[in-house]
Design a protein that fits this description.
The complex is a heterodimer of chains A (543) and B (309). Chain A has 543 residues and is an alpha+beta fold. Chain A has 18 helices and 25 strands. The longest helix of chain A is centred in the first third of the chain and has 21 residues. By secondary structure, chain B is mainly α. Chain B is flat, with a radius of gyration of 24 Å. The chains are: A alpha+beta (543), B mainly alpha (309). The interface between A and B is large, with 70 and 71 residues. Chain A: One of its GO terms (biological process) is peptide transport. Chain A: InterPro entries: Peptide/Ni-bd, SBP_5, SBP_5_dom.
Chain lengths: 543, 309
């Protein structure tokens, strides 16, 4: 053994290290010095892209990519306003079951002509059980979709047809009131058959094996790497209205790293954790993003005590939601409705304001105590004890701790135990009804209250507590069939108010993310539901 | 030697097979499905999916299919990353972790040997105390704390190295330093202790009596003998470092394998769990084998064939 060699090796490493120190400072050439005088922005996401295959995507990261590199019949603007994209005109039959779209001439980024057949191909591919799309259920209501997914009808019997290159006819089995919103969701975008088939199982597993038709094209994503780029699509039909030349994306899993990068101008936006939110609240660029997710309590109605409405109300009114939101880290919003804040804007008003229950979802320990006494008398017991089931994540644990102390303090004699388990276990126990009280969360796929209120109809699988109300079920069923939009909105309003008033669930908080976004970046369209970021019209001011 | 090797390889394969079996059945007993959208899918849809992926078959049948695939070099495709073969997923991720682990190991061990040797030779002086304090700090401060401090002061305030990222050598320096602190502290303490022992042994006295210079005595005798037991320490360290550190990878945006493993377990990504477990397992047993062989080569008192005879 030659230790001199080892020493020499050590010295080399040290020298190499210190030499590189000198030139290491600005070696990251993909990011420019500041956001002024540029048409490129540096954006982040919190997770890797799982897939770029429209039929396979299930998560926000994929949808955010797909929404900017692909395009469908419509593109969603501010407040999920439906705007024409590939469709130039839409005709709906009187019964609402036949939709005829006229398409504008457009091209794929590789130069292929995009036709109505690309929509037909895409939809058939998604509902085909062989594709195993986890989102195929959103096609329910389109003629034969459910049967095809279950393998009980041939794929080509799906209610979609291309008439020539520029006409698309869709047949529904029943009216779908939010059909237009769905058409702005990447799942319903077209796919390039030639590219999909040429790549086989590799389709959508890297930038090179994916076809694009949106405002941007993706470059440099290799399947599981942490940085890639969106570049302006030269073949995009509306390229003159796309102002950015490029968006550099990187995956940031540690908020402190992201904030350091933001401070050194290597990132133009960063998500903030609880501590950063407290410290940076008053900084320029502080931005709150509603995520269209609500967290709420489900009471297991198979347990005798939770059949008692007064007890459920007493529990809900003993919860100080503001303190809970604070304990969770500041940027979350106390909730008094199931439909999340920032999802639906109806007649200029946020839907959560319209249906929110100011009484039973507000902190009122005095009334809670009275209701608790009443409940104990009705149940014929001296005290109640139960367990709260939740996730074993940081926020899951903070939630159960806060609820436990608030309930035991406000309702004397109540014994609360907690059980924090991994997400998959929580889901499993919820589905099997193996809980007393569970903290659940739900996020909307599209900007309509039905994506929330549908959950608590008697037969819905996600109604884990088995709360049931015949009038509620009827209102939801009616809202799905009526042709009268005013009646539909009234039904949805009445239904959610019943659910909240009867304390079928107890809303806790709306998940809100805090971000720092470089203030000179304008024109980003953000929607909480479905696809979040639309960068088509984003620009850096001063250019 | 050849016979010994063959025997060892047979046991390695047997170990791998047992690990694969145990992992497979443990993994299948985790609740839930591997579907990311599980919360929103109805039971019927989950049944349809299970049929597509063969997850509706009895567990023993799934096990046989998996083992058969594995023998053909097919580790299946990931659920988290739709359609990505597990082999290429691991391939893309393992490189960064191995590179970082090796760099940290070399840096930590080399510095540890130097500092530990100085401390032993200068036993009882300020140099010894300083070295002890440094190695205790190194042992007790978690590497992610050091990582965050390095990133903030060296990366952001001084701007000497890129804050995060992967691709250039300069980007590996701060994570290497953060990861090397553990092995550095351990090695320094280890070398100091065993060298203090050796320095008082007879053969050192003999060396001195022969008229060798102090440096020669230390370099050729004291150091050499103190280094031998270090080999046992380096083996497991090498595996621990090369299999990646989820926290360090996340702080420095390194596309490593550490986080993938944790995430695959949390999401019930069965093929990825199996794939990474196998890679870890192979890494560990190969390194243990190498350690044993190297041990026999450098220490004349150990002869592999004889111990097996």
């Amino acid at each position: 053994m030659k230790f001199t060699k080892l020493f020499a090796a050590g010295a080399t490493v040290l020298i190499a290290g210190s030499t590189l120190a000198a030139c290491g400072g600005n070696s990251n050439n993909s990011s420019s010095s500041s956001s002024s005088s540029k048409k490129t922005i540096n954006w982040m996401d919190s997770a890797e892209i799982p897939t770029m295959d429209i039929s396979k995507a299930t998560d926000v990261t994929s949808f955010n990519q797909l929404g900017n590199v692909e395009e469908g019949l419509y593109r969603l603007g501010k407040n999920s306003k439906v705007e024409n994209a590939l469709a130039t005109s839409t005709k709906v039959s009187n019964d609402g079951k036949t939709w005829t779209f006229t398409l504008r001439p457009s091209k794929w980024s590789n130069g292929d002509k995009l036709t109505a057949k690309d929509f037909v191909y895409s939809w058939r591919r998604t509902v085909n059980p062989k594709t195993a799309s986890q989102y195929a259920y959103l096609f329910e209501g389109i003629h034969n979709a459910s049967k095809i997914s279950a393998g009980k009808a041939p794929v080509n019997s799906l209610g979609i047809k291309a008439v020539g290159d520029d006409k698309l006819v869709v047949t529904l089995d029943k009216r779908i009131p939010y059909f237009k919103l769905l058409m702005g969701f990447p799942l319903f975008f077209p796919q390039n058959q030639k590219v999909v088939e040429a790549n086989g199982s590799k389709y959508g597993t890297s930038s090179k094996t994916t076809a694009f038709n949106g405002p941007f094209v993706q470059k440099g994503w290799t399947g599981s790497n942490l940085s890639w780029k969106l570049e302006k699509n030269k073949n995009y039909w509306d390229k003159k209205n796309v102002k950015l030349n490029a968006i550099n994306y990187s995956v940031q899993k540690t908020p402190s790293t992201a904030y350091n990068l933001y401070q050194s101008n290597k990132l133009d936006a960063t998500i903030l954790d609880a501590q950063q939110t407290k410290n940076l609240k008053h900084n320029a660029g502080y931005t709150l993003r509603d995520t269209a997710a609500t967290f709420y309590i489900q009471y297991n109605q198979k347990r005798k005590i939770f059949k008692n409405e007064n007890l459920r109300k007493a529990i809900s009114m003993s919860i100080n939601r503001k303190a809970l939101a604070n304990a969770l880290g500041g940027s979350n919003t106390p909730a008094d409705s199931l439909t999340s804040k920032g999802v639906v804007n109806h007649d200029g008003k946020d839907w959560s304001e319209v249906v929110g229950d100011k009484e039973s979802a507000s902190y009122n320990p005095t009334d809670a105590k009275k209701l608790y006494k009443k409940a104990l008398k009705e149940l014929g017991v001296k005290s109640v004890s139960f367990s709260i089931l939740s996730d074993d994540t940081d926020s899951g644990q903070k939630t159960t701790e806060t609820l436990q102390s608030q309930l035991e303090e406000n309702l004397k004699g109540m014994k609360v135990s907690v059980s924090n388990v991994p997400f998959k276990t929580r889901l499993n126990r919820s589905t099997n009804g193996n809980f007393d009280m569970v903290i659940s969360g739900w996020s909307a796929d599209f900007a309509d209250p039905i994506s929330f209120v549908d959950l608590f109809t008697s037969k819905n699988v996600n109604n884990n507590g088995k709360w049931s109300n015949a009038q509620y079920d009827k209102l939801i069923a009616d809202s799905k069939t009526t042709a009268d939009t005013t009646k539909r909105w009234n039904d949805l309003e009445k239904a959610e108010k019943i659910l909240l008033n009867e304390e079928g669930i107890a809303p806790l908080y709306y998940k809100t993310e805090a971000w720092l976004v470089r203030p000179d970046i304008k024109g980003i369209v953000y929607n909480g539901a479905g696809l979040n970021y639309n960068f088509k019209s984003a620009y850096v001011s001063g250019n | 030697m050849a016979r010994y090797l063959l025997k060892r390889i047979f046991y390695m394969i047997l170990t791998l097979f047992i690990v694969a079996t145990v992992t497979f059945f443990l993994m299948k007993s985790m609740p839930g499905s591997p579907y990311a959208n599980e919360a929103k899918m109805t039971l019927t849809q989950q049944h349809i999916m299970n049929e597509q992926y063969g997850l509706n078959k009895p567990v023993w049948e799934q096990y046989l299919i998996y083992i058969a695939g594995m023998l053909h070099g097919d580790f299946g495709t990931s659920f988290q990353y739709s359609n990505q073969p597990v082999a290429s997923l691991i391939g893309a991720r393992l490189g960064a972790s191995v590179q970082l682990g090796l760099q940290a190991l070399i840096l930590g061990v080399v510095l540890g040997v130097i500092v530990g040797a100085i401390a032993a030779v200068k036993q009882g002086t300020w140099a010894d105390s300083t070295a002890t304090v440094i190695s205790i700090i190194g042992k007790s401060v978690p590497n992610f704390v050091l990582a965050v401090l390095l990133q903030y002061y060296i990366g952001l305030k001084l701007g000497w190295f890129p804050l995060a990222g992967w691709g250039q050598f300069s980007q590996t320096i701060m994570p290497t330093i953060a990861l090397s602190v553990g092995p550095f502290a351990e090695t320094a303490r280890f070398i100091r202790t065993s060298m203090v022992d050796n320095l008082s042994s007879d053969y050192i006295e003999l060396g001195k009596a022969k008229g060798l210079s102090k440096t020669e005595v230390i370099r050729k005798h004291a150091m050499r003998n103190s280094m031998i037991p270090l080999v046992t320490l380096i083996g497991p360290y090498a595996v621990a470092l090369m299999t990646g550190s989820m926290v360090i990878e996340n702080i420095f945006n390194i596309p490593g394998i550490g986080e993938q493993f944790v995430k695959s377990i949390l999401t019930n990504d069965y093929p990825t769990i199996m794939g990474i477990t196998m890679v870890y397992c192979i890494g560990l047993i190969v390194i243990l084998l190498i350690t044993d062989i190297v041990y026999g080569l450098i220490d004349p008192r150990i002869r592999l064939d004889e111990s097996e005879a």
